């Protein structure tokens, strides 16, 4: 955090020293630059913008754009109208503004409103427009909100495949960029072309800006998925790992346990999501048609096998769906399925237990400042955390012992918070039961609301747009 504070101090001092010198050149008293609000009003007058702009400076997002507009106006006042000048005004105003203010070669020409309009070529106009759009979208995506699409049924029926939603960055506080060298508005690869859209030659320390609140129990959270186990590699930088969306079941310091599918936190049964799903084996007398499946809103299912003349499906159903179909005349039998065999792709977490997805724990979620003794059991539960997420130079786990930077450690204190995530579709979700905790620095944001929902199984004139989900808040 020290690095960010130092940078912000340098940025703040550099910008205001630049304004101080520029105001002097413009015939104003430079000391006004250091007076809150009054300094901003003076800058607005110097660039020739209306006085009521001072109100805009205090409106989120709009204030950021007004700030850059005044910087661009100041550049114009010094005849700096090239594209490279405006780029420097965005990237490094704490360097450019002091140079303009103190350089004897740079002359103040008057307010931007008084100077003649700049004649731009069509190419320059397009470049300016595109650059502004990219910068604006990048800032909004980083600071405020990001679009996300539900790709898998792990959160059905709370969130459906084909839901388009906005993820709030300001709820938990946005992260400062860790991987700065990437193509704007991309994640991992360039859309449509598939090539990597970033380079990890530069990796910066990442910090979280202040947010409205912390992650709470039952929040629906988007996060960068951690590796499945201790032996998995960390192929991508943290901020460019694949995004997952799940419900936060347990927060730092909580004790989690699952008994017969019911989740308990700190010894108390948690309230289950209203649209939570479990798996059932459904035997029917005939093959199910789309019309029947659509009528009962059954989207997460697979044909399993035939049993004589009957057909058997595996369906993931809410309690309401189960009650609606169990008495249908073509339904022969419905058998609840357990998920007691862990996960066939890699097993349950942690690996040294006989837990499974329906009977799990108790497990204590690591918290910043929590201290544990080091032994085989704690290393199996927390070894991946210490090695992959606590940012030590060297971590070795061998024969039930922990070595950090070459020295044996008999107890360990965690350096950040962790969370336990689960899908509402409890039997069709790859989540913390299989790959463990989600570190605090992997949290992207809070799922906020759905702005569009499309059903891939239906046509545009057959109910493809799920209008009932339009602008629906996520709970």
Task: Note the topology.
Blueprint: H1 2-25, H2 38-47, H3 53-56, H4 62-77, H5 83-91, H6 93-102, H7 122-143, E1 145-149, E2 163-168, E3 220-224, E4 243-250, E5 255-259, E6 262-265, E7 268-269, E8 278-284, H8 290-295, E9 301-307, E10 310-317, H9 319-325, E11 331-336, E12 360-364, E13 371-373, H10 376-388, E14 395-398, E15 401-404, E16 407-409, E17 411-413, E18 418-422, H11 432-435, E19 438-439, E20 443-453, E21 472-473
Antiparallel strand pairs: 1-2, 2-20, 3-4, 3-20, 4-18, 5-6, 5-12, 6-7, 8-10, 8-11, 9-10, 13-17, 14-15, 15-16, 18-19, 20-21
Helix pairs in contact: 1-6, 2-4, 4-5
Summarize, please.
The protein is an alpha+beta fold. The protein has eleven helices and 21 strands.
Please give the share of residues in helix.
25-40%
Largest sheet: 8 strands, antiparallel
Strand proportion, as a percent range, falls in 15-25%
Count of beta strands: 21
Based on CA atoms alone, the radius of gyration comes out at 28 Å
How would you describe the shape? Answer: globular
Mean pLDDT: 84
pLDDT under 50 segments (min length 5)? Answer: 229-233
Query: What is the CA-CA span between the terminal residues?
Result: 32 Å
Structural class: alpha+beta
Number of helices: 11
Question: In words, what does this structure look like?
Answer:
About 25% of the residues lie in helices and about 20% in strands. The chain contains eleven helices and 21 strands. The chain has helices at about 1-25, 40-45, 55, 60-75, 85-90, 95-100, 120-145, 290-295, 320-325, 375-390, 430-435; strands spanning about 145-150, 165-170, 220-225, 245-250, 255-260, 260-265, 270, 280-285, 300-305, 310-315, 330-335, 360-365, 370-375, 395-400, 400-405, 405-410, 410-415, 420, 440, 445-455, 470-475. Strand 15 (about 400-405) and strand 16 (about 405-410) form a beta hairpin. Helix 1 (about 1-25) packs parallel to helix 6 (about 95-100), helix 2 (about 40-45) packs across helix 4 (about 60-75) and helix 4 (about 60-75) crosses helix 5. The chain is globular, with a radius of gyration of 28 Å. Mean pLDDT is about 85; it is low at about 230-235.
